[in-house]
Amino acid sequence: MKLYFVRHGKTKWNLEGRYQGGGGNSPLLPESYHDITLLAQYLSDAQIQFSAIYASPLQRAAETAVNLNKQLTHPVPIILDARIKEFNLGKMEGMKFVDAEKKYPEIIKAFRYHPDLYDPKKIQGEDFNDLIKRGQDLIFEIIKRYDKPEGPEVNILIVSHGAALVALIRSLLGVDMKDLRKRGGLVNTSLTCIETENGGASFEEVFWNKTDFLDKKLGATDTI
């Protein structure tokens, strides 16, 4: 089984450098629909046929999933599941990065670089353990539902959020908590793939943060 992970298209808050977690949302930028089309073309050209698409119910992810699915050669059912929502960032929702760094410097530093030291109680947010648990619950449910040892390879597409996906994917690959963020963030509308050949007992990375199908120069606001 291969799991393909997509970070949602770029939003207004992404462009403005604002924290956009599980309790905040802003609309996709017009340019993001073009990026989604390019991703759909890449997946179609690669002849990857999916069994299902799972998406966060937050508007930016759900809208990315719907627009992507419409343009695939073989559209499939979309299942919205709150277990792959972004981190609940509590009091930081909607705050500009620069303002959050001034007000909560240690919390921001831990969130970005030292997940093992991240304590979100002060901002009334969600920690890495809770996010990873809910995300992995869904992943193993998907594997149980679709993975047939004697059948053909199964491909599942998952549309979620930057920080949540980094934590979830890297945890599935067996990376220690302290090292989850060492490869940095994911680009909007990027594609990452991991696979399991033993029913989820272990996972291997196929590729990480693939963006070569996008026809633009990436900037600082494209990644988290």
Question: Any overview of this molecule?
Answer:
The chain is globular. Helix 3 links the parallel strand 2 and strand 3. It has a 6-stranded mixed beta sheet. 36% of the residues lie in helices and 14% in strands. Helix 2 crosses helix 3, helix 4 crosses helix 5 and helix 6 packs across helix 7. With 224 residues, the protein is of the alpha/beta class.
Shape: globular
Taking all Cα atoms into account, the compactness measure Rg is 17 Å
* End-to-end separation: 27 Å
CATH class: Alpha Beta
Main β-sheet description? 6 strands, mixed
Number of H/I helices: 7
How are the secondary structure elements laid out?
Blueprint: E1 2-7, H1 12-16, H2 30-45, E2 52-55, H3 59-71, E3 78-80, H4 97-103, H5 105-113, H6 128-146, E4 155-160, H7 162-172, E5 191-195, E6 204-210
Parallel strand pairs: 1-4, 2-3, 2-4
Antiparallel strand pairs: 1-5, 5-6
Write a short abstract of this structure:
The chain is an alpha/beta fold and 224 residues long. It has helices at 12-16, 30-45, 59-71, 97-103, 105-113, 128-146, 162-172, and strands spanning 2-7, 52-55, 78-80, 155-160, 191-195, 204-210.
List its salient traits.
Rossmann fold, 6-stranded mixed β-sheet, alpha/beta, 224 residues, 7 helices, 6 strands
